[in-house]
Amino acid sequence: MTAQIAAGATEESLHRATPEQRRARTVGILLLLLAAFVLWIFGLGVESTDTSTFNLSLPGAKYENIKWEVDSRMLSAILAAVIAFLGGLVLRRTYLRWTNVALAISLALTALSFLTWAAAGKSFSLVGMLVSTVVLSIPVTLGALSGLMCERVAVINISIEGQLLTSAFVGTIVGSAANIWIGFIAAVLVGALLGAVLAVLAIRYHIDQIIAGVVINIFALGLTSFLARRVLTAAPELNSPGRFASAKIPFFGDIPVIGPMFFDQNMFVYATFILVIVIHFGLFYTRWGLRSRSVGEHPKAADTVGIDVHKTRYRNVILGGCIAGLGGAFLTLSQVSRFEENLTAGIGFIGLAAMIFGRWMPFGALAAGLVFGFARALQQKLGILGTPIPSEFLSMLPYIVTIIVVAGVVGKSRPPAADGQPYIKQ
Hints:
By secondary structure, the protein is mostly helical.
């Protein structure tokens, strides 16, 4: 009798769905519903004769007038079929390891179908929107990398928003008074300074890291707003630092679509891509990276084997501040070429969401930054196309994506085990 009960329990445990299986089933059902939505709204929602024209080259490019004309209804129907196939595959094979990949592909196809619907009967610069995606992803990616550098050693950096904002302000003032390169250096140094402040508060005085970050954000917003009204209003010549020009990489910059996106940008874009590679290599293939990850996972064990936990945390948090300073410099010395109150408008917090979305990985942070950059670029371009979607909803789009990501739709993310915990040496 006991053996039968044990056998029944074993069989029940074998048939009980794991969290991964339950999530795969949920994603599969969502993809099937998404396929029906794409077919109904974006496919049948346009006239059968409507054609969408996507421009794949920019004016003045070496290869001009490259266009892709497609039947709007037919393309949406094909994309809906592919999404349904992926949903069925995920639903049928609940052990499928690439659930997130299927979800990502489906969302990308949905975005393409949406653009086809929005551009039905019109001409739309697809390459222009993709270039905007890369540019708009840079501050988000740099904010995510800044948070990643801190949280890998178990220090939560909520102050990214304040670091970006203060660096942008100082970069504008110094760049206008001296030159743009000195403004760039000043912005990075200010980011490092605020990183050091956070490090002292969190590591030396063991202040709650969330509270310390919020205090820095409030201080940065108040200080920059006050100085902008007092200084920049009285001396507008201090609010024109200039802008770093784009530098096309020979041959690669002339490749259609890819060239303008990645090889005809300014130094901030190239520096971000290089930083992603360097940080990834440093974290996973160097002694510094091993020590940083050890401090973030088990600081007591790291201390036992001779790693200076406090020194490692100080170094990483200050480096994270430097990266945030680079993001602030990008905002005023590359993107808008002037400072305005609350210029960041939540980019630092979106960077934190991108860090979580990217699972505390450098390349994941870059991919997440591109997703958020695409959401912001889509918001801008849809206004040009004159879609019936209210402009207020389009303005909400980047923040809606943030909520979806933080809610865990892409799966559960695990931060470093000691994240946010102060270390008191015995």
